[in-house]
Amino acid sequence: MPSGFPTALVLEQLLNGLQLGLMLFLLASGLTLVLGIMDVVNLAHGSLYMLGAYFAATLARATGSFWAGVALAVPATAVVGVLLEISVLRQVYTRDHLTQVLATFALILMFNEGVRMIWGPQALLLTVPQELARPVLLLPGLGYSAYRLFLIGVGAGLAALLFLLIHRTRLGMWVRAGASNRAMVQAMGVPIQRVFTVVFGMSAGLCAVAGGLLGPILAVQVGMGEEILILAFVVIVIGGIGSVKGALVGALLVGIVDTAGRALLPPLFMRLLPPEVASNLGPALASILIYLLMAAVLFLRPQGLFPVRT
Amino acid sequence: MRSRAFVHLVVAVAVLVVLPAGAQPRTVRIGFVSTLSGGGAALGQDVLDGFNLALRHLGNRLGGLPVEVLVADDQQNPDVARTAVERMLRRDRVDFMTGIIFSNVLLAVGDLVFGSQTFYISPNAGPSEYAGEQCNFYFLNVAWQNDNMHEAMGHYAQLKRYETAFILAPNYPAGRDALTGFKRYYRGRVIGELYTRLGQLDYSAEIAQIRAAAPTAVYAFYPGAMGVNFIKQYAEAGLLQQIPLLLPGFSADADVIRAVGRPMVGVFNSSHWALELFNPINRRFVEDFRRTYGRIPTLYASQGYDAALALDHGLRAVGGDLSRKAEFRRAILSGFDTTRGRVRFNRNGYPIQNYYLRQVVELPNGEIVNRLRGTIFRNHGDAYVSRCRLP
């Protein structure tokens, strides 16, 4: 490792963190709204992300175009989301969280097994589209993946769109109101059930965007939803449940802290400690860094950074 | 009508009651605990498919005895595996155990299996722990010792005179064995050594460090989905053209190639097995595997196949008498025919065999497969056997 942290390495890490953060936001925003409005803990959120990726991979192969695959996967997953809401989630709104956790955990198992039955246990092939499969020279010696830059662009664009939707439209107003006090909103005659169905379908669609776009750099495989679901939960706990702004800030924090920790801690420890200790301690500490972050936030602000309920 | 149905029923019950009590020989029960969900699912499925294919080729008999296979998913989780293994040993009373993919899972259940005096035939995990002082009479590995494939690639990197290397692996027993194996034969300078979390999906942070360190070559051991992700991201960062990526066969087999696609063409890797190894067992295995499952077999599938062949060979040697355990073990150690030709074993239960250099190529018909490019080690054993005190 050359002395000091070269600017190229730091810049690359910031971009990596931004990219991871924005993709996490696509998952966390839906999760936080569902939990915020209807008080439903939906563990099957990650399964919708997996399903989105499988739809994207299958449709991309069928149409011969990556773009068509992702574009078609979004409505397809949204439809599955709406059906899921009508058939299962509606039954567990009024139950306690434990029931919801059990029901949606069962859904994870069913989705995983279903996907395995339909597509098989092997990972599916989904490649980066030809026009983005090359590095872009950002600095001399730093060619950054064009595809990851594109992910940053899409993530930022969708985040902006979501903010307009939440803060500038009637639906958004209902959603915000529903997240802060559902009973009152219902009493005022807002069709909260229908709002929720729409939100649930939308969040499934966002899952498909994240799944389809991350498919080419992560693997499209059974169980891919669980890993990222944990991160998404960390994000909404940090951000404050029900808050889209919190989800954005939390996602960016988690993305940047996670990548920076993994890139900068091991070489730092290498210089301070004997190599045997450093090669164990560095990665270990890097992987618990986001949980430390979460613990710190919960200690200072138990409701998260941007609490919705008072 | 009614009386006829009654007669049918009586006959059916009679057949059910009488048949098992009759001349039916004793059934061999195999406990197959493996990773069948999550990021390592493809590996466990391949071992299972290979194992089942061999059983079919053997007429569903091992050493002349009918076979019953009990399958359980360990979810790549040592706790889950322990429960499943305990159940199979205590309640199902299996005669043999096999199937585990990950070394950390195997190490968590080894004492249970050995303690109940049941043979464990490893079709994959080959931790160094069971090769040296803790070697066990009841442990046999038909695949390799964890270090072996990496020793071969370390030797290859040394032959190519790569001056500096950046090496990475997941932080678990086989990951540490892997990099130890690589360093045992590579004499150049290791300028970066990283252990990442087992199951990690995004390697952008590690790839940024590789770029900053600018090594002559990169060696990465990532099995299953981890390998798919690492290689995809390495290629997509534009590094595959700049810094040669050396891989063990685990990270460059049909399962990974299928998911990564064309960027893998040209990559060198090491393996104890190859599609085109020329012997009748391998030819039949490869052709029938493709026909039966509709995909190219991996080295994992060959190991599952060979695990069944080992059981068949051992049971044949003792005439199906499961109590003659020392003889059973001796028969397997002295060698039998596998998909890699005849393989003998060291006294620690690990194989002595060749390790080959393979390269990923694109065939004229567009198929992307590994081709044999040479032999790195001949009759290669492991580095730990001298510390094993078994006879």
How would you explain this protein's 3D organization?
The complex is a heterodimer of chains A (310) and B (391). Chain A has 310 residues and is an all-alpha fold. Chain A has helices spanning 7-38, 45-63, 66-92, 97-119, 146-168, 170-180, 182-187, 192-214, 224-239, 244-272, 275-300; strands at residues 135-139, 142-145. Chain A is built from eleven helices and two strands; from the N terminus they run H-H-H-H-E-E-H-H-H-H-H-H-H. In chain A, strands 1-2 form a two-stranded antiparallel ribbon. Chain B is 41% helix and 23% strand. Chain B contains twelve helices and 15 strands. Chain B has helices at residues 2-21, 41-57, 78-90, 103-115, 148-159, 173-185, 204-213, 224-236, 254-260, 280-293, 299-317, 325-333; strands spanning 28-34, 61-62, 65-73, 96-98, 119-122, 139-141, 164-170, 189-196, 217-220, 245-248, 268-271, 336-338, 341-345, 351-362, 368-380. In chain B, strands 7, 8, 9, 10, 11, 12, 13, 14 and 15 form a nine-stranded mixed sheet that branches. In chain B, helix 2 (41-57) packs across helix 11. The N and C termini of chain B lie far apart (69 Å). The model of chain B has no long low-confidence stretch (mean pLDDT 92). Chains A and B meet through helix 1, strand 2, helix 9, helix 10 and helix 11 of A and helix 2, strand 8, helix 7, helix 8 and helix 9 of B.
